[in-house]
Amino acid sequence: MHKEEKNLFFHLYKYRLKQLLKDRSVIFWTAMFPIILGTFFYVALYHASDSQDNSFKAVPVAVYDSGSYKNEKEFQAFLKEVTSKEANYLKITTVSGKSQGENLLKKGKVEGFITADSKISLQVTSSDFNTSILKNILDHYLQTENMYEDAAMNHPQILADLSGLLAQNQNYTKNVSFGGKSLNNMIGYFYSLLAMSMLYGSIFSFINALQIQPGTNEIAARRLITPTHKMLIVLSDFCSALTLQMGIYLVVMLYLTKILGVDFGGTPLTLFVAGLAGNMAGSGWGYFVAIVIKGSEKMKMALNMMLTLFSSFLSGLMVGNMKPLLMTYAPWVNKINPATLISDAFYYICIYGNKAEYVRCIATLFSISAFFCIAAYFSLRRKTYASI
Amino acid sequence: MERSVVKIENLVKRYKELLALDHFNLDIQKGEIFGLLGPNGSGKTTTMNCMLALLSYDKGNIEIFGEKMTADNYGIKKRIGVVPQEVAVFDELTVYENIDYFCGLYIKNRVTRAQYVKEAIDFVELNDFVKFSPKKLSGGLKRRLNIACGIAHKPELILLDEPTVAVDPQSRNRILEGIQRLNKEGATIVYTSHYMEEVEQLCNRISIMDKGKNLAIGTKEELKSMVETGETIVVEILDFDAEIMQGIRKMEHVFHANYENSFLRVKYNGGNHNIISLLDFLRQKEISFGRVFSELPTLNDVFLEITGKELRDA
Questions:
Q1: pLDDT value of position B220
Q2: Measured between CB atoms, which of A226, A384, A387 is closest to B105?
Q3: How far apart are CA B183 and CA A87, in angstroms?
Q4: d(CA B82, CA B192)
Q5: Cα distance between residue A141 and residue A360, in whole Å
Q6: How far lies B126's CA from each of B60, B130, B141, in Å?
Q7: What is the mean predicted confidence (pLDDT) over B296-303?
Q8: Full-model pTM
Q9: DSSP letter at B134?
Q10: Could A222 and B84 be called an inter-chain contact, meaning their C-beta atoms sit closer than 8 Å?
Q11: Element spanning A9, H or E
Q12: Chain B contact for A225, CB < 8 A?
């Protein structure tokens, strides 16, 4: 770039930055609102999971040590297995009387009460996670018992094979380490909050785009009748908006991590790149809405805000399990929703350490930004005004 | 040497069914203050926007400084300054910053620009307000800022689109004086307005427009000589007779007379000492009268005769 062109670029860049910085309503939505909301999240949610012990505990159950139970050797062996150190699904309290067991159940000291009179049965007083485990365990035993009885009666030749198969008893889950990082269940809200803040930054680009279209703004007409190339004005505006958005991102991150003490994880570089990709997606979005979508300024601004909020909603900002729901019913939404991509990028790098997925999210965000910017550029270039 | 700074030939511009400019022609010479006078909706702003290549047009040719005007003819754009009808400045920047910003779009050299900005501030007399934001300025001061942003880079051609709308009389006079100074310094001015008094005061040549057409072009004297109306004499009479009116209408050089709201208005199409003849006639008829006024023809009279309507009512 020629020296004078460079000077002109910085002249425009400097004044645009100043102008955007002084727009209080926009600064509120992009900076103060995420800080305020983040504070509320921190106060209301961040330490809510501290008092909970999230590791799985053995389900307490009472077993009636009746005469019938003493005869059920296989069942006793089964119960021994599920209470072993390796499995640790149940914590058994043996009772000598039925009323004793029912009493323990009524008082809530056990989740279920097993009796083995004419048949093995389970008594519960509620329907929740623990009682579901109890039912599943007992169902598994009873189904296995039925299978053996049926095989013994009707297909004795496969009895030996059946024993072998059941003994294998595959475990279909495996533990995944978080690399030694602690996981706060509420961190997802903060990731979605950051995503929303970045997409709100689209307002800066929106304003920039309005002020380059004479059909929507008097200042635009004044800027376009000058001998300065339109694209130099657009580029300087874009850079100043992105600078401001990254500055706000840095301020919000510093507030959340250093003042509130939210543990994001990740490295400064990965967080920076995620912020850059997210903010560029927001910028492109703002340009696209302001230039390509037809309508009045107010209508376009309302649409911009609405789409930002909707994108944030779909990423789980307001309803925590929105992403899993979409994964089940409309997985393509998660793959293209900018707010989801931003929060996922944080998840993958900060929690799971999955660089490949992190790079996928970042690349998709940059692609989204490029798509919006290119579409806006061609639309702006082709525009002539029949009326202004 | 090409004397025409602006040449518009056969310009046609449509907004859907509405014909905004109807084979409009214009030829503005170097060093003129040229007035585009017409009521609201006559096509003045549309003409300006077409000249600046902000608007597409359906037919015709526009040349500025002898070259065809297009959106990417930066050579021409460098030599033009525009003061738009709406105040187009950044509320978030100060007076100084606004002028510096817009001047910077024309003048890349920092030192030259700083000098020009200072001169522009002096020119519009906003020295006491350089650190104010436009939000804190009155309407008149905002208009002056609007002008400063358009002329700071010392353009050769300045287009001013109704620069005195909603401005107090003191600021208006300052603005008009400023425009005359710019012209004396060598700028060609195109001035649009629906205020005939301003156009009469300021402009060397005037084009009267209506419905996208050029109705008449010339100096104010030439335009006034196009119409029948010469002098108009107004006499306050409380008690008036229809018979007297007949007599007045038969007097020499009288082409129109009417009596309304206790005032007799008599229009002449020539003659000298008409006031003496009229007052003598009234004395002979023993008609008592009060105040007497004599009005010379205005551009409104020109517009009225050509179109049948008042400039302000149109």
A1: 87
A2: A226
A3: 97
A4: 12
A5: 45
A6: 41, 6, 8
A7: 82
A8: 0.75
A9: G
A10: yes
A11: helix A3-21
A12: yes
